[in-house]
């Protein structure tokens, strides 16, 4: 039976073979047999960059090589490697290579290269990871929602939380949960949310979302934020899921539960909830 690493390598190979085509996240994630939503999380955790960043850097690498060794026009290179205009291509190319596309055609031009990724799995000893499998009834959350792009969400979501509290949003929504819900595979909805109480009026600007009943893998997070959550999150996608034989991913959402703040940062206790189903 082929494993997680082999399927991820299939996805990387598919990307490499279609860098001059219009790549769709649905086609890429199908190679790993997971949804586009979950593939984005897995890819970022395993590879350290987003899918979009990886594709962009591989395309710019190939564009630089082709410009330096052929008579292709800059506008044709822009179209070939997925840019809407020569100007947008030139800006991206210059940021990546440090020189313009025109300068890349000059003899002796120095270019940068981002090599194709290869997934390798090495066993370095046993690892203990605390988790539990629980059944939860359907529940409703209420909160402030915003749509994020998968490529920039790691930078933008912390800003969303900071803005929420700086503008007094904590008076309406305390922030018991951070909830990611699938959009179209490229974008997703994120909510700063609390449990919804039907006896309370929904504050202006807030929305409700129902989380269906199901099975959840619950992972404790202890220690100062954001390190504790980020460490556990990385271990989920890179260690627990690839080695789990009893469960696979279910719904296209996941939840961060902020349960105890404490008097000191190291006193924080939270959980990451991941929907799963038996294999």
Brief description of this entry?
The chain is α+β, with helices and mostly antiparallel strands and 279 residues long. The chain contains nine helices and nine strands.
Structure notes:
The chain is of the alpha+beta class and about 280 residues long. The chain folds into 2 domains: about 5-105, Homeodomain-like (Arc Repressor Mutant, subunit A, Orthogonal Bundle); about 130-279, Multidrug-efflux Transporter 1 Regulator Bmrr, Chain A (Alpha-Beta Barrel). About 35% of the residues lie in helices and about 25% in strands. It has 9 helices and 9 strands. It has helices at about 5-15, 25-30, 35-45, 50-70, 75-80, 85-95, 100-105, 155-165, 225-245, and strands at about 130-135, 140-150, 175-180, 185-195, 205-210, 215-220, 245-250, 255-260, 270-279. Strands 1, 2, 3, 4, 5, 6, 7, 8 and 9 form a 9-stranded antiparallel β-sheet that branches. A hairpin with an 8-residue loop joins strand 8 (about 255-260) and strand 9 (about 270-279). Helix 3 packs across helix 9 (about 225-245), helix 4 (about 50-70) crosses helix 6 (about 85-95) and helix 5 (about 75-80) crosses helix 6 (about 85-95). The longest helix has 19 residues, at about 50-70.
